[in-house]
Amino acid sequence: MVCVNDGEEVLFPSPGYPIYESMAKFLNLTATPYEYVEKNGGWGLDIEVLEKLVTPKTKAIIVNNFQNPVGVAHTRAEMEALAAFAVKHDLFVMSDDPYYQIVFSDFDKSDFVHIAALPGMADRTICAYTYSKSFAMTGWRLGAVLGPQAIVDAVTKINTNDEACTTHFIQKAGVTALTHPDAKKFTKDMVAELEGRRDLLAKELSTVPGFVPLIPKATFYMMVNVTGAMELAGTDDLEVFRRGVLKETGVSFCTRAHFGTPLAGESQRYVRFAFSGVTKADIEATGAALRPYFEGLKK
């Protein structure tokens, strides 16, 4: 609302958080998706493809490092390429950073840089942060926006007229989350627990016929390539597949279709598992339910 005008274009990641696309369309913008591709058992960007999407009406790009649903953790080289792309085409960058602190030990933190810290980016980057993930304050709706003063002033004006202010006790809880040693320990312990769940989920799903888990280095989501499993189930429809698995096994998951309009030419099929609100016993039970069902389909 403060960076892009009616009828202009914004680039957004797909698969990605679905509100990117729906909000752009609600504001009468052209929402143009850019894709992630499988790389080395995880996900990455193809900058050359991104270049082909730019038009004279493109004014902004949404960047979501440590991303829902794919769990991508961008390397410094990828962030530098995105920054150079934004500078080249004079784009605003909306950096959505909700999972900034939920990063696992196999991500090389020395290879990390925030896009706003790169040359030419401070005056064109708007960073959005929430307490929802790192401090498990999801329902409290507390966050912050950082960026150029003119942009922040406009955001403040909209926010003041939209919701007035955040409840005082929630503001105080946010200060405690940022400053209290126990809060920092909570986040550290939570991330360690999530990493254990991630590893167990990958182990369980890798034993299910037709399931190929893609290991996230951040967040608490795992995308799984189920192209082979859908062939076993005799369908190429993700929703039919999802409903069938739920009915036969009791296992629930989202599909790629929940995370933005699919791009033309997509040939692989994906589902997303969340491992935030489950126990390790739940994860083991998931594998125990899925394995016999898909092993039976092979016969």
UniProtKB/TrEMBL annotation:
Pfam families linked: Aminotran_1_2
Domain of life assignment: Eukaryota
CDD domains in alphabetical order: AAT_like
Keywords, sorted A to Z: Aminotransferase, Pyridoxal phosphate, Transferase
Domain Aminotransferase class I/classII large per the UniProt entry, residue ranges: 3-284
Gene3D superfamilies per UniProt: Aspartate Aminotransferase, domain 1, Type I PLP-dependent aspartate aminotransferase-like (Major domain)
Cofactor(s) needed by this chain: pyridoxal 5'-phosphate
One Gene Ontology term of the molecular function aspect: pyridoxal phosphate binding
GO biological process: amino acid metabolic process
Protein name per the record: Aminotransferase class I/classII large domain-containing protein
